[in-house]
Amino acid sequence: MKRANRFAMHPGWRLLILDMGMDPVDVLSHAELPADLFAAKDAWLSPAEYFRLWHGLEASSNGRNIAVLLGKSISVDTFDPPIYASFCSANFNVALQRLAEYKRLIGPLVMDMSIGPKETAVTLTCYGYDRPLPRCFAITEAVFLTQLARMATRSAIRPLSCELVTLPGHQAECEAFLGCSIRQTSTNTIRFSAEDAGRPFLTENLGMRKFFEPDLLARLATLDGEASIVERVRAVLQDMLPSGASSLDEVARRLAMSSRSLQRRLTQSNLNYRDVLSDLRRELASHYLRHSDLSPAEISYLLGFDDPNSFLRSFKEWTGQTPGNFRSESRERKDNEAQNIQAHRFRS
């Protein structure tokens, strides 16, 4: 998965800063960014500039709680297309999956998800910046995800827990807003109950999502201007599979080319469409079995198979194992590695 090295400055930033009761010019001054950044056409930020903007927010806050201010101020008016497309999803899990993909278009962030029978966990990491992150950054991301779910479901969503590398200022106020405790750990992870993660979005809007989708997929596929045709096909398939769609014709339509042109370009890369689809399904299936508690039937659905038995046969062909045996062996290896590491530390 490619990482972007520049990010579009959406006009919603200026509106959000104003709604937070802050001066956009003052924020940009503290961030050492151009004073006309929010008004400039086609303005872009590097990873370092992105985090300088957050430092500017902190410096301009006069000690106020940035995370809670943002949580109380965000509105649909401030959403850029990647966030709005996620807001139009069927439920919180689907929205998080889309955000995990689209986050690359918003900032130098990587968002990993783990969906289990009891909870959905979201872990955030950053790249492209070698200085300490703004103290408000991780907690603000946690507040944003929580508030996004509340807005879309019209329910009082409360995370199960919030774990941060750096504890925020105004910790008690942040805990009161989230409705859960915040503790310091080695990762920035927020957890939601399976019930809340699967709660339907009242804002689901297939028409609007389809309106934004072609441009977003095109932007993902051309990160750094060098995505191959295989990467583009895989990016489209990842979005299609949970809906049960996987045909070459549909992929070609979403990539704005004919089926014949798509087949020809894959052939030029010494590949065929069936191989690309099969390889992606195999990789995703292995990931879900290693990192989630999803049942084979649920994984079958996420991979776009017609029925679970088709998935079971395919997985046996790929690996020579059943999904259950594969998961058991993966977890056994992981447990053995953890024990070896612990034993090594004890001997040291």
UniProtKB/TrEMBL annotation:
It comes from the Bacteria. GO terms for molecular function: DNA-binding transcription factor activity; transcription cis-regulatory region binding. Keywords: DNA-binding, Transcription, Transcription regulation. Coiled coil: none annotated. Residues 231-329 form the HTH araC/xylS-type domain. The keyword Transcription regulation applies. Residues 323-348 are annotated as: Disordered. The keyword Transcription applies. This is Helix-turn-helix domain-containing protein. It comes from Rhizobium leguminosarum. The lineage of its organism: Bacteria, Pseudomonadati, Pseudomonadota, Alphaproteobacteria, Hyphomicrobiales.
